[in-house]
Design goal:
single chain; mainly beta; Jelly Rolls; 3 domains; 7-stranded antiparallel sheet; 2 helices; 36 strands; 39% strand; elongated
């Protein structure tokens, strides 16, 4: 029986010990782990002026650069870094109403997500989402506020179930989004097809329509009868074609006059109403045939809590009857990373182009997507081997090469002997690997001190004497991700 103590003061979990005396291993010997003492080192990531820039491309040549918050991140606040990276990536997407160019159409309806998979690796996802809806696809994203056929859908037109006469002041005749709005470059649009003054009054509660985004889940609304104004966060209200649009950009308060009059022209030349995410802001816009560009109604910072934007849900309400108000070509970009995933090839425009302002639809594009961390510190912290990464596709997922070490709290370790061929086999590697032992980390901490209750000997299967003066070993995570260590590491083995 021989006791061999291996030591290391490197920071890579490797042991490489030279001995002045020869160690003789007799034929058919066995080896076992007696104990191990090692301290893992989660290197903190410091974001400062030297490494706060990250670049990405949704389409080749359109490089976007974001600036990360200056802070120090480690195993205790790693989620804050992931949140900040995701937030800044999405805010870096560029919105364009596209009056004279389609340069940014690949970014409309686009979203990015930074997360850690169930395999413990960081993923950076880039995806677009379903956009245009018709009579058959509307139900994939919207519920009716009132059970039954509360909304009439014909082609790409929607309207109240009430055909003629006095409309409704309640919330029965409307739609609410099933899934939250994208947090990327989001677009929610409707087009006015029919809008007739029903003579009920300039701001009658039973006329016109509402269209907006709410920061509370529809399941919390008192539907179908009650949808109070304090759950309507960003919204546009149309009463009569001769009355200014009203708007609100906060839950508090009532709708207020926007001082913007509708264009009474309807059908294909009717107004477009839009609420979009543009960088860090929510923007309400009107597009009219008589104007060269979109007309902003409001711009409001998108509320972010702990680095995460508040979820928003779209809604449409019809207060007027079908004879007096019809909307056309509903467009809504839900979060593309929900489950089940709602994505599709994006349609081109479903309406004839008109004179004046025309908001462009998104365009799906199979192209080279890119994420460039610009520094080895960020790439290494996230587990990527390469600083710059590219994938060709429409919806892509960048997957880190190794585990997100800053998130590992409790994981077994592998001990491998590099120059002693053991009779060990690993299903993960689909073959023989010189594994001495798998060591649990029950303390969920950085210091690992382990001594097995029972010695488990592994055969060396050597037919002859083996003499050596060098023994090499290494400690790895279960997926062979290197373990960063600090201080003195000690590995004791027994040779029989």
């Amino acid at each position: 029986m021989k006791l061999i103590r291996l030591t290391s003061e490197t920071n890579d979990g490797r042991f490489d010990n030279e001995f002045n005396d020869e160690i003789t291993i007799k034929p058919n010997s066995k080896i076992a782990l007696q104990s191990i003492s090692v301290e893992s080192d989660i290197t903190a990531l410091v974001i400062d002026g030297d490494n706060d820039q990250v670049e990405f491309e949704v389409s080749p040549g359109n490089t976007r650069t974001i600036s990360l918050d200056h802070a120090t991140y480690d195993e205790f606040n790693n989620h804050s870094f992931l949140n900040d990276l995701q937030l800044k990536l999405n805010q870096g997407l560029q919105y364009s109403d596209g009056q004279s160019t389609d340069k940014f159409r690949n970014e409309l309806g686009f979203q990015m997500k930074v997360s850690v998979s169930d395999k413990g690796k960081v993923n950076v996802g880039m995806s677009n989402t379903l956009y245009n809806y018709n009579a058959s696809s509307l139900g994939t994203q919207f519920n009716e506020n009132s059970a039954g056929n509360s909304i009439q859908a014909s082609g790409i037109k929607i309207a109240s179930l009430t055909n003629t006469g006095v409309g409704r002041a309640d919330s029965k005749h409307g739609l609410n989004a099933i899934n939250p709005f994208t947090t990327g470059c989001g677009v929610f649009r409707v087009k006015i097809f029919t809008w007739v003054d029903d003579t009920s009054g300039a701001t009658s509660a039973t006329s016109g329509f509402e269209f907006g985004l709410c920061d509370s889940n529809p399941s919390t609304w008192d539907l179908p009868d009650g949808m109070p104004d304090n759950v309507k966060t960003y919204a546009i209200r149309g009463f009569q074609p001769g009355t200014n649009y009203y708007q609100k950009s906060t839950n508090a308060g009532n709708f207020v006059d926007s001082n913007q009059a509708p264009n009474p022209t309807t059908s294909t030349a009717g107004d477009w109403l839009e609420i979009s995410i543009q960088g860090a802001n929510i923007v309400g816009t009107i597009f009219q045939a008589t104007q060269a560009n979109g007309i902003p109604l409001f711009t409001q910072p998108y509320e972010v809590i702990n680095g995460v934007p508040k979820p928003l849900f779209g809604y449409i309400l019809f207060h007027g009857s079908k004879a007096n108000i019809e909307l056309y070509s509903t467009a809504y970009t839900p979060d593309p990373f929900i489950s089940p995933r709602i994505t599709a090839e994006l349609n081109e425009e479903l309406f004839p182009l008109q004179a004046g302002a025309n908001p462009l639809d998104p365009r799906a594009n199979i192209s080279t997507k890119k994420i460039d961390f610009k520094s080895s510190e960020i790439a290494s912290f996230l587990g990527f081997n390469d600083i710059s990464n590219t994938i060709v596709g429409q919806n892509v997922l960048f997957i880190a090469s190794i585990l997100f070490i800053a998130l590992i709290e409790n994981d077994a370790l592998l001990i491998l002997l590099e120059n002693l061929p053991l009779e060990s086999y690993d299903g993960f590697k689909k073959g023989r690997k010189s594994i001495l032992a798998s060591v649990p980390n029950p303390n969920s901490g950085s210091r690992i001190v382990y001594e097995p209750n029972n010695l488990n000997y592994i055969e060396l299967n050597n037919a002859n004497d083996v003499s050596l003066r060098n023994i090499r070993a290494k400690i790895l995570y279960q997926d062979y991700t290197p373990l960063k260590t600090r201080g003195l590491s000690v590995l004791n083995v027994l040779l029989d």
